[in-house]
Amino acid sequence: MEGGCCTASSTSSSGGTEISNSKRKQIRQDKPYRGIRMRKWGKWVAEIREPNKRSRIWLGSYSSPVAAARAYDTALFYLRGRSARLNFPEFLVEEVVSDARDLSAAAIRKKATEVGARVDALQTAEHASPVSNNSGRVSEKPDLNEYPSPETSEDN
């Protein structure tokens, strides 16, 4: 009886520390980038902890995970410098490198939200651009809140 109890506890302790492959895949799908998370309603948010403090710097809410991750990368770079593990190290701009210095939390937040908003706007513009179909015509998504005008209605 004791052997069964000890065996069960030893398997549960080793099983509790190990994450299955399916769980890892689910975590990767839920958090595609470091430093961001998704809200229940679909927005992506980014925040970062200040070094040697318990407080966090709020970096904003974005419609795409890439925009949130870029905002996080900007803040992380200003906090940690060149040694930071970035999501997108290829987007490190030389002007940012030369501009890096000891900044306040508010200044870091401002710079990170500017980058995130710019990326979010570019991503939104890409998704909102007109889509061409196979016939060669360009079709736009109609605004459902707008009343149809007489020239666009097809009452033939």
TrEMBL record:
| Chief place of localization | nucleus
Region span, Disordered: 1-29, 121-156
Any one Pfam family here would be AP2
Give the location in the cell: Nucleus
Key word Transport present in the record? no
Output the GO biological process annotations, alphabetical, semicolon-separated. defense response; ethylene-activated signaling pathway
Tagged with keyword DNA repair: no
**Signal peptide residue numbers:** none
What GO CC terms are in its UniProt record?
nucleus
Q: Where is the composition biased (Low complexity)?
A: 1-17
Q: What domain of life does the UniProt record list for this protein's source?
A: Eukaryota
Q: Which SUPFAM superfamilies match?
A: DNA-binding domain
* Domain AP2/ERF, chain residue ranges per copy: 32-89
Q: Which UniProt keywords are listed?
A: DNA-binding, Ethylene signaling pathway, Nucleus, Plant defense, Transcription, Transcription regulation
The UniProt GO MF terms for this protein read: DNA binding; DNA-binding transcription factor activity
SMART domains for this protein: AP2 (SM00380)
> What protein family is recorded?
Belongs to the AP2/ERF transcription factor family. ERF subfamily.
Q: What does this protein do?
A: Probably acts as a transcriptional activator. Binds to the GCC-box pathogenesis-related promoter element. May be involved in the regulation of gene expression by stress factors and by components of stress signal transduction pathways.
Q: Any idea what this protein is called?
A: AP2/ERF domain-containing protein
Native source species? Erythranthe guttata
